[in-house]
Amino acid sequence: MDNGKADTILAGGRIWCGSHAGFARALAIRDGRVTAAGDDVDGLAGPGTRRIELRGRLAVPGFYDAHMHLLPLGLAQGEVD
């Protein structure tokens, strides 16, 4: 996209923006990077913008872990409330 608009917008949920920023209700992403976060980022939407409605769910952008350790993972599952 060359129009300066967001490629993707997440909205309608709780979006974790880090320990200093807390939560936002909407997030705009362009070229794989977060460009804006807040209560409303609809001004960054263009005709080709993909919109993901979170419907109250939590999104944690940038949180990515490609592996796990099976035994500790299984033990930790027994501690989940």
List keywords for this structure.
5 strands; 81 residues; mainly beta; five-stranded mixed sheet
Structure description:
- Helix content is 10%, strand content 36%.
- The protein has one helix and five strands; from the N terminus they run βββββα.
- The mean pLDDT is 88.
- The protein is mainly beta.
- 15% of the residues are buried.
- Strands 1, 2, 3, 4 and 5 form a five-stranded mixed β-sheet that branches.
Q: Measure the end-to-end span.
A: 43 Å
Helix residue percentage: under 10%
Q: Which sheet architecture does the biggest sheet show?
A: 5 strands, mixed
Rg, alpha carbons: 16 Å
Instruction: Assign the structural class, choosing from mainly alpha, mainly beta, alpha/beta, alpha+beta, or little secondary structure.
Output: mainly beta
- What is the number of E strands? 5
Task: Average the pLDDT over all residues and give the rounded result.
Answer: 88
Number of helices: 1
Tell me, what's the shape?
Answer: elongated
Low-confidence stretches: none
Q: Work out the strand percent.
A: 35-45%
Secondary-structure element order, as H and E?
EEEEEH
Can you summarize this structure?
It contains one helix and five strands, in the order E-E-E-E-E-H.
